[in-house]
Amino acid sequence: MTGLSDREVRSGELFERFTDRARRVLVLAQEEARALDHHHIGTEHLLLGMIREGEAVAAKALEGFGVGIEGARRQVVELVGRGETAAQGHLPFTARASRALQLAGQESTDRGLDYIGTEHLLLGLVREGTGTAVQALVKLGADPAGIRQAVDELVARYQAPRT
């Protein structure tokens, strides 16, 4: 499989595979974009949504690096600033955020899974590699390779047989 097309992202085919927590991340990402008066949802907003979700693999992986919501918000504002007017109506994904979502789908598919969880969203952000989210993470001391390793370790722990 070659990944998900822009059409699949726009049509909602991708989102049908999202877990409830991954969908919650998107809602929180939109809230973060609006709170910053941004007229789009970028990788930085997806990152903030993952942190705010707080319970799933992505949040736990980031927590392991000491990445919290206040520090991440400060980095986002430092990198891209605040908007000047309140956002109204639909907020589109930026090209990088769309690409990160496509890559999240690919991360899931590469693992033979039929769902996309927050861990895949985080791995998609890291794999995209050039967005504001990765810049913020690096400034906060969370390197992409370390994030990938932390996610893999958390997933393995959750999947380990319980005795």
Automatic annotation (TrEMBL):
Single GO term (MF): peptidase activity
PROSITE patterns given in the database record: CLP_R (PS51903)
Alphabetical GO biological process terms: proteolysis
Domain Clp R: start-end pairs: 15-157
InterPro entries the record matches: Clp_N_dom_sf, Clp_R_N, CLPT1/2
One Pfam match: Clp_N
Protein keywords: ATP-binding, Hydrolase, Nucleotide-binding, Protease, Repeat
Listed name of the protein: ATP-dependent Clp protease ATP-binding subunit ClpA
Organism: Nonomuraea thailandensis
